[in-house]
Design a protein that fits this description.
The complex is a heterodimer of chains A (433) and B (456).
Chain A lengths: L1 H16 L17 H5 L13 H4 L13 E17 L9 E3 L8 E8 L4 E16 L12 E18 L2 E24 L4 E12 L5 E14 L2 E8 L2 E5 L2 E7 L5 H8 L7 E3 L1 E6 L2 E9 L3 E10 L6 E5 L8 E4 L5 E13 L2 E10 L17 E12 L2 E16 L10 E17 L1
Antiparallel strand pairs in A: 1-2, 1-3, 1-22, 3-4, 4-5, 5-6, 6-7, 6-8, 7-11, 8-9, 9-14, 10-13, 11-12, 13-16, 14-15, 15-18, 16-17, 18-19, 19-20, 20-21, 21-22
Chain B lengths: L1 H15 L11 E5 L1 H4 L8 H4 L3 H9 L18 E5 L5 E4 L26 H6 L4 H5 L6 H7 L3 E3 L5 E3 L2 H7 L4 E5 L6 H5 L12 H18 L3 E5 L8 H4 L4 E4 L3 E4 L1 E2 L2 E2 L5 E2 L4 H5 L24 E2 L1 H25 L3 E2 L1 H9 L4 E3 L2 E3 L18 H19 L8 H6 L19 H10 L19
Parallel strand pairs in B: 1-6, 6-7, 7-14
Antiparallel strand pairs in B: 2-3, 4-5, 8-9, 10-11, 12-13, 15-16
Helix pairs in contact in B: 4-15, 10-13
Classes of the chains: A mainly beta (433), B alpha/beta (456).
Chain lengths: 433, 456
Amino acid sequence: MRTAKHRVLLALAVAALAVPSLTQGAGFALFEHGNRGMAMGGAMTAVADDPSALYWNPAGIAFQMDEGVQVQMGVTLIQPSQHFNGESPYPGDGYKAEQISQTFYPPHLYVVMPMNEHIALGFSVTTPFGLGTYWDDDFAGRFISKRVDLKLTEMSPNVAFKLTDGFAIGFGIDYAIGQIDLTNNIGFVDPYTQKVADVGQLHLSTDGLGNTAWGYHAGVQVKLGKGFSFGALYRSEINLTYTDGYGSFRQFATGHPDFDAALAAQIPFGQKVDIRSKITYPDFFTFGLAWQNEKWTLSGQWGRMDWSSFDELPIEFPDYPHLSTTVKEGYKNVDQYRFGVEYKLNEKLAVQAGYLHDNTPQPRASMSPLLGDGDRDGYCAGVSFEAFGIRTDVGYMYLDIDTRDTGGMSFDGYEGEYHSKAQLFGATMTLKF
Amino acid sequence: MKKLVLVLTLVALLGALPVSAQVDFTRYVALGDSLTAGFVSGGLVQYYQERSYPAYLAQQAGAPVFEMPLVSEPGFPPLLELKALVPSPVIQAKPGAPGMPLNATLPVPYNNLGVPGADLYDLLFTTGDIQNLLAGNTDNAMHDLILRIPMVLGPDGNPMEFPAIAQAIAQQPTFVTLWIGNNDELGAAVAGTPIDGITMTPVDVFQQLYPQAVGALATMTNAKIAIVNLPNPTAIPFVTTIGNYVDVPGIGTVQLEGEYGPIGDDDYITLGASALIAQGYGLPGFPPLPEDINPATGEYGVVLRAAEVQAIKDRVAAFNQIIQQTADAFGIPVLDINSIFDDIAAGDHWVLGGVEISADFLLGGIFGYDGVHPQSIGYGLVTTELINMINKAYGADIPQLNMGQVLFEGGEPTMPAGAKAADVVFSQAAFDRLKQTFPINLHEPRPISHDTQAID
């Protein structure tokens, strides 16, 4: 028992150290919460037969009583790439840019504890939302964003009840911690040259982990007989008001000292000033149907994310109201479709494959250097093996994102075409006690 | 057989044309005034002439030739420049002798026939003679510079006058843009005084002349035509920049006074008042700001009362109605620059790559140092809107202007900020420059009817 406790603590410590920093998932939602699930296209709501059920359907842990205490943890490495081809009027036909490559590593951690025949408890740490884009300093979209890192980490206690042999429900409370880090240049018409000049840089950052909000989720799983099961999940909106953060302004000399002085009278260069923002993260519901026998698992799933909650992104400077802005977003609700298959070669070895289609919630007008999204098709594969009492799931996904252009409608006046794709690769380990 | 060959040739030609090529810029002529000429910050100079909206449009539409009456640095007249921004902006004319014509010997009329200062009447009837200008006479300088030849032999073998419209028709253009009429009302705002027949062209005269101009182009050429209407005077920083209150150290906020009493929130004070306010005019214990043009001295008024602004706007609306009706009659599309400029003046900024471009004086980017005329970014805006309109109206596919280049390109060389002594926003010299641009003849109103044989 003593050893087991240590291992649980170690797992928690590892998860806490791995600072999540991420991207991918239509809009900026993430659905990579376990590499077996990822390899099955995320079609896990009806399956929910491992600890990652705590994200996809908490009712599922009520059917995992025989597994004992389980600790599952892992990480998915995400390597997105994006090219941008500009169009006139701005930044102009022929302009090309490419994002600086980055690798993100959102971790996941699940602990499942059966209490008795009917009740199981669970605890999870996931990162259901994340966004990271990074462009060169001289990038033509630098007045909108040079670099952004936005993430929402959730810590969720869960409880699930097996009401009958074929019917379980589960609930969880989500304690969400939001972080934003955003850098852009400030552009102004230099009255001497009558051209646009880079007069400074703004760095917005939430300071630490003080921006939090609560949400909840619930799921139901029904064993329909003959190997069929049905699952449903609802995850609530997370309404997060960011009050703990700052904006820091840095001035760039234009070569015209009196212009610089005039700007400095308006913009608090060299200072850290309070900022406020607010993001309503969308609610999400999904329904799945699966069929399983000794060897095979087949699963299909439909989901809808109510992205219309993300209508605008206000950035307020309470002490400098003239600097406050509101970024128009205008997202719409979208559907997603997920399919997965698993084949167990034997007790210790299984392979998975999956496909997903995620519609983008982002209208063409709000595509920007912050995020230029498109509909996504994910092609996934994975393998699970057990050795030394530890199950390891290795998953891979190639995410093909539709090329889209702003069609002359960009809210930011930044027209062009975004070509994107991503590769995801990760490993998840499950320990049973 | 001949017929068949002709048909085949035509088919081949048509087949060779790009599907979207619904407009032909082989011979493009721009008619208008200072806004068409690429007049910026009080003068004409090559750098900005090449960034006029007709030059941008010709470039985007792939016009093989676009000849302009180019002028060397520091411009004709020398351009205004910003000498200092704080504590108060100082705007002065560049030093040195005026620039010289660079393209005066071109043996054919220019493609850009925009003449600074020209009104509708001038477009139809006023000629110019380059010899007059080269002899040092500046009484008709812009027409002399741009139209150059006053008379030519007409098709019937008789000499005929050669005003801008005739120079356009003589080129048998394939495409024409027409933006005329600004000087039929803008002078009222610059002089702070709307007077029918003096600073504003009477509506019936405009009604008589505008269809003549468009009719001549429509019937005497095969050109496709695009027309631009007229912006309101309240869209330009010359009118909107100065508030009716000033902060006087030691006293506080003081409402400025004009000759007719305190200047209200709905009234406007023009940039022409700037040098006067710096001397104390309009403040308690000083003379009031002059409101109207002075018939004795020719000095302009610098206050536009609400009723005066309304009178000018009403005149603009009347002209725009005539422009629209005329265009409709000839099936010509009109760019409604009036509402575009109004929207921008109302704060509906033009956002490019996250940078807000506005109608603010000095910092907005659209207008140059004279507060009346756009500079390259503003002419880029006009071009962008014009291309959108032409593409839509004619089913064309002219590529949009690359504003990325316009926003950041090196710019004309700027002198380092010099002496900051003068505590003046808009120097008297700068205002005088504008008066040259908008000359008002108090004593000789234009004849309303005129021998129109020149274009018949």
